[in-house]
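Hi R.,

Here's the chain you asked about this morning:
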Amino acid sequence: MLPLPLRRFVPWALLVMLAACGGGGGGGGGGSLRPATITNLAYSPSGAYVAASGGTVTINGSFSFTGANGGAASVTIAILDAAGTKVASTSTAVPNGANLTSGVILGSVMASTATPGAFSIVVTLTDMAGLVSNALSGSFRVTPFPWTAQSAMTTPRIHAAVVANGSRFYVIGGEPVVSLVTPAQALSTVEIFDAATANWSSGVPLPVAREYLSAINVAGKIYAFGGSPGGAATSCLASNFAAVFDPPANAWTNLTPAPTVISGAAIAAIGSSIYVIGGIDMCPGTTAGSSSVQVFDTVHGTWSAAASFPAVAVQLGAGVQNGKIVEFGGLLNLNGGSGDANPSQSIYDPATNTWTVSPNGFVKDGALLISDMATALDGANLYAIGGDTTIGTLEYGVFQFDPNTSGWITKEALPLNAPNSTTAAPVHGPMADSYNGQIYAFSPGATWVYTPANDLH
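And the predicted structure, written out as tokens:
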């Protein structure tokens, strides 16, 4: 249906008349004739990624017609570029169209995906009397794939924190990738990825080694809280560690420790206040999630408590939407399993210090809840990336929060063929943040850059 000007096509390779009404030549003679009316133009897909499907994509479409004088003679499809200039036009005879005055025409074409661009299509029907119908129009977009790969971090690890400061992404702490079954000791390593140059460099190490820590940028400084020292033999999976990194001074400074130990918590900031949400808040020996919310005031360097959220969760996600905090996903405890997922999702209003359970939880395919995901904001939009499902599989999905419904929109998944969190997948324990409208997701074996504007979903 869409003969884009990028190559020669076979337009309307298949034309079938459905629900065709009989009838003669359609009306009286001469000037009393009126052209046919066409409606209900529909086609799929309405876009494709550059070089998708080996360079071409099949587009199937249909439209309805009535009042074709003497029957349907031909279909004309014109293609306009983004400036509105006609760049291609083709007409194809309607097989067995004589005396068919109304019906539905189906067709398919092969469209090139070689070159990106935004195109408009204009479809008309000519009847046997030579009269041209009204025009129906639609659009088709060819865009680069939204995910591109960059070089991986030098020290492969999971469960680190990632914080962007301008074009520089700080990958902080984490657990070395030795085995996803046997826990390793945490790291104090800090590596910096510069999105402007796509190069890695070493940063100032954390004052202590931590994994599952929570970190965020407020006013150009990086704040890091909690986390676990890691290792299978440790008696405590959480800590009250608190420190701030000042990029101009290139130094960490210890802060007042958190009132309660924490690990695997979500983190969000509104103004100068940092909210550390959920996670493990007891020591030693517990793996249970928490509903606590600790608030750090970056101006005065003090801690306070906010209202607890309506569930308990560890390895959950959080982000700010319209001045409110959304918490979602995670596990009730680190033992995992389908019965241990946090099924609720709630929204915090700092003006009233209250949480409200939203009608939609964070799920995939309506059933699988996800934990240990990366979260990132590309300005106004909140995304959840990768993680683990509650049936024990690694997750490659990407989801965007919809503030109008409190639901999640499925976006283009990570471009991976075989799950393997030790090589290229930002899945189990991924890390992400954003810069210049793009999201950078980090895993042990790859750095992936997501451009939301190129996503066709």
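The longest strand covers residues 56-66.

Let me know if you need anything else.
M.
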